[in-house]
Structures
1.
Amino acid sequence: MTTFLSNYLGGQWQSPSQAVHTLLDPITGETLAHTGGAAQGLPQAFEFARKEGGRALKAMSYAQRAAMLAEMVKLMQSKRDDYYAISLANSGTTKADSGVDVDGGIFTLGYYAKLGAGLGDATSLTDGAAAVMSKDQLFQSQHMMVPVRGLALFINAFNFPSWGLWEKAAPALLSGVPVVIKPATVTAWLTHRMVADVIEAGLLPPGALSIVCGNSTGLLDALTPFDVMSFTGSADTASKIRSHPSIARDSVRVNIEADSLNVTILGEDAAPGTEAFNLYVDNLVRDMTIKSGQRCTAPRRALVPKGYMHAVAEAAAGKLAAIRTGDPRNAETGMGALVSREQYDSVQAGLAQLKSESSTLFDGSAQPLLDADERSACVAPTLLGVRDTDAATKVHDLEVFGPVSSLMGYRDLAHAMEIAHRGLGSLVASVYSADNAWMASAAQELATSHGRVHLVSPEVAKTHTGHGNVMPASIHGGPGRAGGGEELGGLRALAFYHRKSAIQGPSAALDIAKQNSTPLSY
């Protein structure tokens, strides 16, 4: 029986409407679930979330909300097998790639449960020490952070239906802010199932967590000045969001994560045969193919010293050739499908554009697919070589959201940094080298245009977390083309869901105001 993904708004499930959107298995094309069209009663539902969900959450301390998150973790851990099955069917991912999403989301939720427990019984935060504003020291100013009055609306991308939800919802709920989630329709099943499990278990107050499946019509219209919203998706959609009247006129606080042409760089010292060289190739191949390249942090541009181009291409091609693409139900499959035929067409069109200024160094499509055919959304990995690094433009402008990366040669450190900056702002850059001074210089420069800089030497070969892995202790986001947003980063994530205000007055009054506060210490 096909599942209908109903909306949960105003503390209740809405009756199934006419099916408008169909979710498909990207391998077999089998119908998995349906969603309806535009949600009904959004203004009333949003007000219910603000008043009922918000009031109940804000009545709790950080530690109490953290305990609530911990119970959610236990629930999800007990249902991991169900989530893995949904991920395989709806996203076409292997077990390992499903784990990146499913377990990554649960881990992030648990991480914020532990952080929140350390905030204790407080209900607000202080930011820094009080500033003395009078000669007698009696009149002072204290910056305090209190949970925002409104709700948090999340409009998420299709690639991480679990992690994309919980990396946003965990700090929001911990802050005492109710959440409305709008997952990308094509992979909404997993998000819907997780939300339904939490609601059925009664782990959150009514109105604390809502979900809208189907299209997003009316969501932004229902926002008010004290709400916040976070969007993950294309730069084109982000631009439309920023210009929406609710955002532009009412100054709704917005966090954007958009396109990102991430770069991975091989150091000048990392000659073929060195450990740093081998680490670079291993991680380039791994990050190209995890989730079939459908990660916002995947390395789209690979920079290597000009003299090492052939060696890198040959080594990477050998490893890519060992990865079989096809149905993840087959144990020999190393890389599954894209999420849909629409995404397949988008990747093919993007590849055609990139090839206009590149040569193909490896094309995995020569290998037959495992238990899949041309009707599936499977795309084999492709490694391109840019013919003229300085003249090329498309490689710095077009993000092909699949298992595709472009190799480019650089002359020296300054040239490599110039090329990296041509991405106009990215989520992550990684550097592989055994020369700590060279890496440090690169990091200082890369930090001006990248939200995260990942340095890897042979010393950390076994312990580094990976170019593409977003860990909750570090911020996730990037400037410019990447959207200018910032998520996670430990307790830094709570700042987006709090309103900072300067409380000025007698020191005695400020002391009383701070009785239920704790310092926000990073």
Note: The chain has 15 helices and 24 strands.
2.
Amino acid sequence: MTVSSSEALRQTFRDVAIGMVITDVDGQILQTNEAFCRLLGYDDAVLTGRAIRSLIHADDQALDAQVLRDLLAGVRRSDVITKRFVHASGREIWGDVNFSVVRDEHGAPAFIVRMTEDVSARKQAQNERDRLFDLSLDMLSIANFDGWFTQVNPAWTRCLGWTAEELTSRPLIEFVHPDDREATLLARSRILPGQPIRGFENRYLCKDGSFRWLSWSVHPQVDTQQVIGVVRDITDLKRDEAERRLLEARVVRAQRMEGIGTLAGGIAHDLNNVLAPIMLSVDMLKEELRTEAQREVLGTIKASTERGADMLRQVLSFARGVEGERVVLSIAAVMRDVLQLVSDRLMSNVEIRMSLPENLWAFTGDSTQIQQVLLNLILNARDAMPGGGTITMSAGNAVLRAADVPTPDLPAGAYLQIEVRDTGHGIAPDHLDKIFDPFFTTKGVGEGSGLGLSTSMSIVRSHGGFLHVESALGVGTTFRLSLPASTEPAIPVVDPAPTLPQGGGECILVIDDEASIRRLLEASLQRAGYRVLLAADGAEGVARFTAHRGEIALVLTDLMMPVMDGMATIRTIRAIDPTVGIMAMSGVATAERRIEVLGQGASHFLAKPFAADTLLSAVRAAMPDVA
């Protein structure tokens, strides 16, 4: 059998539009058509007798040889491969080559027919797509309708750490965060009919075990049963958005706290004006009552009034930063006072224990504020044990290293540490970083304000200390309060002086818009030996001072008054007489208010409410001749 003996084959060579070449079984070219010659840029005479192998790109020669061996061995009758030829100019020509074997009458291979279609343009476009696919910063993927990746670009490995082989070897749903799988499967069910989805978000597993947020734009190809995905890592955007929301929440809380501070200041002023006459009346009545029972009732009234004043100071200490009196204290005494205070408040099935070793260091602080911190911790511990349990209060000395303190602004050194430990249900891990936030509470409506721990943290920080919490669900919680220790001895509690300071006939001008306070101040001062002039507001007070300028030794004025407030009154009187003593009174005793008052010309400041002994001691100290 010869090539020229087939008229049909000659006709095919002459008319077909794709390149054709016929070789013998050894690969020598027997005949080519015009289309093949044009494809590679050769004349037919040049190609005839040449080895076909010399026209094939070196990297594709092995593939061509393997296909040819399979065909000659009868493994397959024909085959199509994509391979490169070398043009006469040296450039690459991509072709889809269809191999077939022509056999003789005995079935033996006679020659090989190769039909070649030029696909260089298609291959170039494909290579360009592959290059863009590989270089894209977005994560590109192709998946089948069964939910498996068939191809992913290198951006997936850069983002998640998985190799392409690892990502294509498992169903893609296995990489999705368990909490996001239901939503992901629902989205996939909408894709399969051919509906694209844009902006779908879920969390994807990284090789290191972490998760990253991904945003998907998915385009299904129903004809090829493939899903094209363009995916972006939005983890940083999510984090920024969370931080923005947190910042907005903090701003809202700060604005709310500013409002609470303003409201608390006004309420404190009014309530302290209510408490002031009660405290002054108690001291006056003490001298009139004769029986022990009467004195006991009076003592209860005084204790309740002082407790109310303490509670107001505690609210202001959180809302507006009121500073209490800082002295060197014994923590044992403070803890015993707290224990006595809460003993009748705890449920019957809660046991409270206290462990106080000897030689505890002292600390500098406000006793009322530290009591408030301990009280908050104890009542929180009680609420954590609705079925009963044990609360243990203990204290100890500790020398802390720099690594033991939470922030660089706190020094290492000697600290007094107080622990409040309970056997309650514990705090959930996702709540631990929130419990000190204002208004955060896990209690029901009306059961907690969410201010207890935030107030405690504010007080502890103002004392130069820090608060640490450890908790385990079902085991209990321990709060550890660390306060800088003092090298000075604690100031012992002493009984008040048996006699009140007395005046010597000096004239005092009292200016206050509350009639009850004016009357009680007048009575208390007159009983102590002072002469008293009264005024209901600043304007009246200035007029009285001008009329009696030569005889007034001390001006005692409230700050919040109608017509002319205390600040204007102080400035006006100080302008009239630079030497007269002026004592300002206020139910809002912030540090800023004290500084402002003293800067306006007052010589002393007295916080409402106050007892008679406090009043008379302050008056005696403020007299110009008793500096």
Note: The CA atoms of residues 189 and 195 lie 9 Å apart.
3.
Amino acid sequence: MASSPIESGLSSVGGALWPRGSALLTNSLLNKGTAFSERERDALGLRGLLPPRVFTLEEQVVRALGNLRRKPDSLEKYIFLTTLQNRNETLFYRLVQDHAEEMIPLIYTPTVGRACLEYGAIFRRPRGLFISIRERGRVAEILRHWPMSDVRMIVVTDGERILGLGDLGALGMGIPVGKLALYTACAGLHPGYGLPITLDVGTDNAALREDSSYLGLAHPRVRGADYDAFIAEFVAAVREVFPRALLQWEDFGNTNAFRLLNENRASVCSFNDDIQGTAAVAVAGLLGALRETGGRLADQRLLFLGAGEAGTGIADLFVAAAISEGLSAADARRRCWFVDSEGLVVRYRPGLKLAHHKLPYAHEHAPLRTLAEAVDAVRPTALIGVSGQPATFTPAILRRMAELNPRPVVFALSNPTSQAECTAEEAYRETQGRVLFASGSPFAPVTLDGRTFTPGQGNNVYIFPGVGFGALACGAREITNEMFLAAARRLAELVTTDDLALGRIYPALTRIREVSLELAVSVVEEARRARLATLPLGDDLRSELAARRFEAVYRDYV
């Protein structure tokens, strides 16, 4: 994986070709803005196109940070950062890297959820490719419209299940754009290698179809054979046009997510972050919690609220981990219970047919209608929310978890913050501070009885950038569940005693570059073990991968 995909332009300076004048200033990957030196301004035709003073990158970061913090709310800050990214990507990524804890919630969860809802109203400039189903037969042609020919990472959505917000159709583009920004900021993927794509097949959100600012096809979702043929053409076109690209499926609905992953993972290097990434970050959180509670992963009992792709993905990876600790597959699955919209998932529920992905976790038990009843029956050591239903972990349920466990584990993982099953404050207050808590979106520290707790954010940002970067670096033919399990175990190992003392079962976001590098190393090691790596790497993987990362520093043109 080369350090830069960009070596083209119009002006020969110092042996390389670069755009000149205003063409250079409008190229976000090459633009330095007011940081162009006096010599560069003369050599590249920039004299007079910029104010006379030359600023350093560090000075630009200070100015950008001040401008950002003056914005009145998170959506305005998101718009500011998007505009900066479209103008000067080096400055954008330096700002994000230097202030990760402040910036990541603005470019991704929770702010990206609001940004997707408002995407039509705040739309300024297209970023990525919108490919609609009416372009069937031309998908490869459209992929070739992308200005970069050596794409390595594609994040694609059809917008049917955006976070916990449901079907947003074409407005879901904010998710692929945000994920790719995190690949660069957190793992060091060169931004020129990324391509965000939205596949527009319509939307079943009637309010959007009637909205005059909606950007997508204003008809109901196409399903069935026509949808499948469109997806098959897309996958084939990716293999043809960008043969070295990794494909990340993002925010597809449950009816499609599992089968698209299973049908395509062997033919194109790909993974589904909602299924596998969420699973890895949750299992890492469970492993981190065990450092406080003691015991083995295989001894835990998990109760999930929500039986979609995220929940069953977590359960599947938990089962794999428990098997490695000596349990049989059947015994491991019996430690995972689910509550869906109809109540406890059991073998027989009169009048209801179980979806295929729920069958392995449908145990023999009398039907129960409520989560509270399920908590009493299952007596879980960990309660995991992936439902997108806010305030469902009620005070009574949280208190019951504290009665059942000296250190109850409660993960409210639904995004954005407005969809979380409970708040951090509720979890700590109702358990007298004994809970080991994590959420999908960030919550502020909580002070209770003189002690301050810093809740962990069980967000996929800890997993997918490192996994994807590692898979690309070694040319993995396939991304396996074993790679995600290796990443989960390494993430849990990176939690420090200081983190645990604060009540945090994930590393601080300030360490995200270090974390992503460590996970990339673990993925490469697993790919080698499974003989799935196709590119040679040296013995010092950590140093070699670190050297391949994009660094947000300006290059000298002359």
Note: Residues 462-547 form a domain with the Rossmann fold fold (CATH 3.40.50.10380).
